[in-house]
Amino acid sequence: MPDVYRALSDSTRREIMKLLKDKSLTQKEIVEAFDISQPAIKKHLTILLEEEIITVTVQGKYRLYTLNRDMLQQAFREMLHYIGDLLDDQLASLKKYVEKGEMKDD
Amino acid sequence: MPDVYRALSDSTRREIMKLLKDKSLTQKEIVEAFDISQPAIKKHLTILLEEEIITVTVQGKYRLYTLNRDMLQQAFREMLHYIGDLLDDQLASLKKYVEKGEMKDD
DNA sequence: CCAACATATAACCTAATAGTTATATGTAGT
DNA sequence: ACTACATATAACTATTAGGTTATATGTTGG
Hints:
- Two copies of one chain form a homodimer.
- By secondary structure, chain A is an alpha+beta fold.
- The first copy, chain A, folds into two domains: 4-67, Orthogonal Bundle (Arc Repressor Mutant, subunit A), CATH 1.10.10; 70-99.
- Helix content of chain A is 57%, strand content 13%.
- Chain A has helices at residues 4-8, 11-19, 27-32, 38-50, 69-87, 92-99, and strands at residues 25-26, 54-59, 62-67.
- In chain A, strands 1-3-2 form a three-stranded antiparallel sheet.
- In chain A, strand 2 and strand 3 (62-67) form a beta hairpin.
- In chain A, helix 5 runs antiparallel to helix 6.
- The longest helix of chain A is centred in the C-terminal third of the chain and has 19 residues, at 69-87.
- The first copy, chain A, is elongated, with a radius of gyration of 16 Å.
- The two termini of chain A are 21 Å apart.
- Residues 101-106 of chain A have low confidence and may be disordered.
């Protein structure tokens, strides 16, 4: 099971996700956006891939990384569900929303 | 670095929060709900305390742990806000909910 | 007071994270 | 075919997380 908390627990990874918000990027472009080495970035990308938060497509010598919005959406929903259970009454309406899958899901 | 992601990133801690959903519990009661040692649980409780997700009151030889719903809510809102931003348009309605603090707040 | 119980702390282990540098592999353009 | 470039991998370091056992401390009832 993909663990979104693992993916989110590192600030560099959170930054990478932000970078990928609007457009897919090659590994090189991502590397250039940070001050850390290419292998370090690669490891973060591997973790994001493992948790299925991003996907990659090969294009010649490039690797193009893309945000997996479906997974993020699912994570979003799960988190809401979890916290909804904890906070119950306070969140009744929101919870219902989530459970019904009301959130424009494909 | 106090980090909400840190507190929520461990499943044992998330289980502890669930346990505390309906009632405050002593450390002993919490320990008994898991298969890991008392010092291990203690460490989780310390982290949750550091992130102010729970509070503790001393009662004689007991420590009574209580969920800090306000902080928990804030923590989740932060994470959801982050993910929501990544998803943008796709989640417009739900996102608004979270951002407006519709989840019982301020 | 003291024994039993609840909690705290110390010392230790292992695995995972997050980074490094150096080098290997794969691909494209000339 | 060679070279330059993009990516992958190997080997290493340091730190932290999550767990252990053993023991110390604090509290309470009898």
